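Agenda item 2: adenosine-5'-triphosphate complex prediction
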Amino acid sequence: MPKIILEDVTKRWGNFYAVEHLNLVIEDNAFITLLGPSGCGKTTTLRMIAGLETPTSGKITIGDTVVFDSTMGINIPPNKRKVGFLFQNYALWPNMTVYQNIAFGLSNIKELMPVISFEALCANQIKNIVADWQKVIDITLESFDKNGVINKDKLYLRLIDTYIISMQTAKRIASYSFEKTPTPEVLAKTVADEMQAIIEKERAVASKKGYTLNEKFEYVDKDGKVLEKVRKLSKEEIDLAVRRVSRIVKIGMFMKRYPAELSGGQQQRVAIARTLAPEPSVLFMDEPLSNLDAKLRLEMRSELQRLHLDTGSTFVYVTHDQMEAMTLATSICLIDNGVLQQYDAPLTVYNRPNNTFVADFVGNPSINFAEAYGEQQGDKINVKIWGEDMVFTPNSPIDIAKWQQDDHDYDRELEEQRANMLLDKHNVEKSNKDVKFKCHIAKVDESEIEEDKQITDNDFIIGIRPEAVKITPNGKITGEVYSAMPTGMETTVRIKIGEFLITGVIFGGITYALGEKVNIEFDSDGIMLFSQNSGRFITTGTLK
Ligand code: ATP
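Presented output:
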């Protein structure tokens, strides 16, 4: 499966930048989610990779093929990129059965494909299956209904699901009626010999034309090269593809139904099967679960995860739901205002966010932010938070003054780069300017307007995840319970410290009285330190 590379990809409409200088490498077989607030450019990014939107500039490579290059004038159309799409509105054809819905796209495919002896392939499948005739009998016996009659549809489905075979092959296996014969081993031998004869005959046919058959029963020439021909899929190949994907999404039993006879979740699964049937090497999904109810969404999420494993395809998934992104992805690509904020594994994004925007965007309940003022002394940073003196100890040694210097230099470089870029007449200034993210410091009374203050290198932002807040008699910080919401498994408590509010998540269903005095401490070495000036992440540590 291919790796996808985006190099300096920009999409703008006039001077509105939907995606700005995006560089991204999507590894082979990855499951990445494009995450970010509404309008940040997720869908545009996905559509550009898929070929549904033309970038203003940049280069996109899928596998070995450059599918877009603005400087070379390359732009390969979507149907030639071998990608599949699954969108929120997955409209199935209402006048077609589930089977027809999945098979329809396959019957229209006409492309360069290996020439296969399907006869030999199926004969070989049958030969292998009957070798274990006892298993065939067991499956057959499980398909009897309560009146002792074989339920043929059930039997075919079970054979298809067990052996991943086409309906035709399943019918053929069933027709031998192994369960009725007193000498199944003799029957199995006769069938195997028959099948071997078919394989030999097919080999002879190929040989006459100057080819041999390889282990997949493809035609191979003398140099070992597989013979390819522009052709359509045979009826049996289509059936095999339909059965294969239906098995993955567990809709084999609905094949004869019409979409109106299915629930929303089942329809969604049909849509997924339809997308998977042509074996796309990359599958693009744009909020495919947003029409489903919460329970079904959860169920489908875990099925998508399985699907990713079973198909081995690369999945690119758009969502604005951070939970979905966290739970599904191998990597999250978090975008804001067309600019990539972080591209990392979900837990890295959660535990080491690049900046306060990322820290705020992931996590539910949200991270607690607090302003901190102080300076480094030795390996500690003495800070004042909520009017109290505290000590932040970084997990590994860091020179804060040096860090601040580098951070200012980096800002200056960005500024220069931007100014230089604008000297080129092809570039236009971004009208949707990037504004610095202002983190929300929760207070009891948020009506008072904050005056703009001069931010210095001694001003920091501390980020505390709710699970790091611990209520304990030993806690040195005192507060009072502002609200408490037990869900059974955990309790979300908001605690008032002076005029500020912080949120904690305590494991277990504990009841707190509102107004109750509590002592707290921060039980984690994952407390985050950010620069208040740039909002960038400095380090993690403990806070006492
Ligand atoms: P959502 O989560 O709401 O779907 P998104 O992150 O997928 O948002 P995009 O659809 O990629 O956002 O849009 C990015 C920005 O580009 C939006 O501000 C949108 O209004 C703008 N945009 C999209 N298509 C066009 C267009 N054809 N012309 C002008 N602006 C557009």
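Discussion summary: The two ends are 49 Å apart (CA to CA).
Owner for follow-up: CH.
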